[in-house]
From TrEMBL:
Keywords per UniProt: NAD, Oxidoreductase
InterPro entries documented for this protein: Ald_DH/histidinol_DH (IPR016161), Ald_DH_C (IPR016163), Ald_DH_CS_CYS (IPR016160), Ald_DH_N (IPR016162), Aldehyde_DH_dom (IPR015590), MeMal-semiAld_DH (IPR010061)
Lineage of origin: Bacteria, Bacillati, Actinomycetota, Actinomycetes, Kitasatosporales
Keyword Oxidoreductase assigned: yes
EC number: 1.2.1.27
Gene Ontology BP terms: L-valine catabolic process; thymine catabolic process
Aldehyde dehydrogenase domain residues: 17-481
Protein name as it appears in the record: methylmalonate-semialdehyde dehydrogenase (CoA acylating)
GO MF annotations, alphabetized: methylmalonate-semialdehyde dehydrogenase (acylating, NAD) activity
Record carries keyword Cell inner membrane: no
SUPFAM superfamilies recorded: ALDH-like
């Protein structure tokens, strides 16, 4: 057993911070429960240092040619691809998810880097010749300045990569504030940027908690904030950031429903519910947490899911045989476990109890096996709250309409899925459901990099979704130029309002 812990600190202006932090946080290996690292927490002074570095780097990076910026992005893409396994192992060690899942997270981040490599095409303006006589009009998209990215624990590499490739590609400079629970991935990415040739100060990392975020939100040098986390924090970040005049996109929590119609392929639906409900121990914002079974498929579906749950190996993310790892911290595991008691007390039927699931790992790890509740109803805490753990709730409904009504009444609107063999029902669902990301026989419909990611209602505050065209727009400001190169015929006074002629 090793007792040494790593020291994780900020990355500012191309190097590790050398100061002495007043506050720190513990970083755990969730599979053993042991503290493996100590992360420095930034106060306002360290945030200011990072913003100063980002501000100093902005002029040079904004003026770097598109060809130069693209060259750095391609180099970063190559390095990230070559070292994806190392990054995945780092994620596993602090987050706990299984290695293949961590590799998947890196792959989905890489997609956005690859999309951003196309920035010459993506950020092009438009040009209208002869909009008026001898007058041409064209548009430009220009960067904002230093931008902040505040990310959650559940995707320590992918979520920052939803934002920074496009922020950097469009000429901004970046300050990332990762989750204090798994901070090392951001430092790994910072070192790759440096190796890729990104000028110092374009990509900075400050670690910490609310104190660091609050300073980023009020700092006049920060022009935009991309936040991902729980809904109460997303809402307050949106309000504080916009109050300080910043552009803000704040993605919040979720309660994703999967609606299963009686004509669905029930084996496919059961596989999907298990994969999307328990993958990453349910710690995904696109996890399926509510299965809505339209009568009469409930009993059959529950039986198939129960059967599959029994085959899942729960163990360390680093073990090749593990299907599901531990939860991120002991406190989170205890909170999630509390729902097993409250669900039962509220009258839901506990079909599979995760506390009793065999674990192939260190007893000190933050384990909770897959849990299934049946006969769940709105008003029960297992339905109303975002649990963010391996707890799947089955709600029975009499019809498609009742299922749709349930989903649309939910305050969250991140992702949803419909399982059916009926194309007409699927088409109706995609039109009628009030959710930002919809899967038809696809349980975790995370859009590819050239579409945008974002929920509706309490799952997103602001109007810009992440990455895709929305990402390009979010990190740039539009400018329209109306141009005339006068010849002598334009001389003369005319105080009238200009009109087209
Ligand atoms: P969290 O809200 O606790 O923390 C997110 C970030 O905000 C972290 O960097 C944290 O340090 C910081 N933070 C925490 N409290 C703060 C406060 N009071 N003021 C300012 N900053 C604060 O979220 P988490 O537990 O790290 O992540 C899980 C949550 O993120 C879940 O609710 C999940 O649904 C959500 N999430 C949403 C999406 C999405 O795309 N909508 C994606 C991933 C995760």
């Amino acid at each position: 057993m090793t007792t040494s812990t790593s020291h994780i600190t900020h990355w500012i202006a191309g190097r590790a911070w050398t100061g002495t932090a007043e506050r720190h946080g513990d970083v755990y290996d969730p599979a053993t429960g042991r503290v493996t690292g100590r992360v420095d927490f930034a106060g306002p002074d360290v945030v200011d240092e990072a913003v100063d570095a980002a501000t100093a780097a902005f002029g040079g990076w904004r003026d770097a040619s598109v060809a130069r910026r693209t060259g750095v992005l391609f180099a970063f893409r190559e390095l990230l691809h070559a070292r994806r396994d190392e990054l995945a192992a780092l994620i596993v060690s602090e987050h706990g998810k299984v290695h293949s899942d961590a590799l998947g997270e890196v792959a989905r981040g890489l997609e956005v880097v690859e999309y951003a490599c196309g920035i010459p095409q993506l950020a092009r303006g438009a040009y209208t010749e002869q909009a008026s006589t001898d007058i041409d009009v064209y548009s430009l998209r220009q960067p904002l300045g230093p931008v902040a990215i505040v990310s959650p624990f559940n995707f320590p590499a992918m979520v920052p990569m939803w934002f920074f490739p496009l922020a950097i590609a469009t000429g901004n400079t970046v300050i990332v504030k990762p989750s204090e629970k798994d901070p090392s991935a951001a430092n790994f990415l910072a070192a790759l940027w440096r190796e890729a040739g990104l000028p110092d100060g374009v990509f900075n990392v400050v670690h910490g908690d609310r104190a660091a975020v609050d300073r980023l939100l009020e700092h006049p040098g920060v022009k935009a904030v991309s936040f991902v986390g729980s809904t109460p924090v997303a809402r307050s970040v949106y309000e504080a950031g916009t109050r300080h005049g910043k552009r803000v996109q704040a993605l919040g929590g979720a309660k994703n429903h999967m609606l299963v119609l009686p004509d669905a392929d029930l084996d496919l639906a059961a596989d999907a519910a298990v994969n999307a409900g328990y993958g990453a121990a349910g710690e995904r914002c696109m996890a399926v947490s509510v299965l809505v079974a339209v009568d009469p498929v409930g009993d059959d579906l529950v039986a198939r899911i129960k059967q599959r749950i029994a085959t899942l190996t729960v163990g360390p993310g680093s073990a090749p045989g593990s299907a599901m790892g531990p939860l991120v911290t002991g406190a989170h595991r205890d909170k999630v476990t509390g729902y097993l008691d409250s669900g039962t007390a509220d009258g839901a039927v506990l079909v599979a109890d995760g506390r009793k699931h065999a674990v192939d790992g260190d007893p000190g790890g933050f384990w909770l096996g897959p849990t299934l509740f049946d006969h769940v109803r709105p008003g029960m805490s297992v339905y109303d709250d975002e649990i963010f753990g391996p707890v799947l709730s089955v709600v029975r409904v009499p019809s498609y309409d009742a299922g749709l009504e349930l989903i649309n009444a939910n305050p969250y609107g991140n992702g949803t899925a419909l399982f059916t063999c009926d194309g007409g029902a699927a088409r109706r669902f995609q039109r009628e459901v009030e959710v930002g990301m919809v899967g038809i026989n696809v349980p975790i419909p995370v859009p590819v990099a050239y579409y945008s990611f974002g929920g509706w209602k309490s799952s997103l505050f602001g109007d810009a979704h992440a990455y895709g065209e929305d990402g390009v727009r979010f990190f740039t400001r539009g400018k329209a130029v109306t141009q005339r190169w006068p010849d002598p015929s334009h001389a003369g006074l005319n105080l009238g309002f200009p009109t087209n002629s």
